[in-house]
Amino acid sequence: MLHIEQLSKKYKNNIWAVQDFNLSIYKEELVAMVGPNGAGKTSIINCLLGVISPTSGTIQLDTYPNQSKKFKQLIAYVPDDLILPEALTGTEYLDFVTSMYQYEDPEKQSSLIELFDIKGAMSEPIETYSHGMKKKIQLIAAFMLNSKLIILDEPFRGLDVEAIIMTKKLMRKYLQKGGSILLSTHDLKAAEYLAQRMVILSKGKIVAEGTIEELKVENQCTDMEDLFMKVSMLRDRSAQFEKIIENF
Ligand SMILES: Nc1ncnc2c1ncn2[C@@H]1O[C@H](COP(=O)(O)OP(=O)(O)OP(=O)(O)O)[C@@H](O)[C@H]1O
Fold first, then answer.
1. Which domain of life is it from (predicted)?
2. Which residue in 7, 63, 166, 245 is a FRET match for 19, CA 20 to 30 A apart?
3. CA geometry: angle at 33 spanning 8 and 174, to 5°?
């Protein structure tokens, strides 16, 4: 499936955003990628999508390198930011995505529109959508395709409770049907609930990787937040933060 090998990214300002990052994601597997702000998650996703060029390393989906057209057709992406063609209606946007990916499944598309309950807004321009509705249209666009891997960057942010529940169920179903998911999130509870494996990044490097159980045992933690603070080396700063809050 997806294989990322020895990926490194140094920006022009000489910042190493990612160093020697290795990750494989297999069929029916969801891997959660977590890490503090600036850990390198977005840089990895942007390298994967070909938005930026890595300084070194390779990325392949099956046998297709990430620069290939086939790779791009097999990957769907829901970004955290909501950059959308605001003048298009929901229907026009989905038509645009369909033509870009050269894949059409009208039945799947309309069932997703029903699931996310935005049928009434489909003929309205996206600029009139709420934050949550914009997220929903992006989720519909990602799940309606014939992808092998979906990259989800904070997919639940802005969604209402019902949509969060539905999205989690949809993700599970997508995995059962043979897909793979890379989930980038700060939501440790969702990551713990959904992921088969977790990668924890800090300052561009993997500091922990494994199943949630393995990570908890290895680090003698029962709680996800405690585990995260420990392996991302933030726990040392906790005492200082506690003091600031106490004096606040
Ligand atoms: N275009 C850029 N030019 C220079 N440095 C950059 C650029 N983009 C990101 N960086 C730096 O690379 C490092 C990793 O940033 P990145 O955005 O990948 O982290 P992140 O894990 O996605 O963070 P967040 O959780 O805040 O979204 C940071 O030190 C950041 O300042």
1. Bacteria
2. 63
3. 120
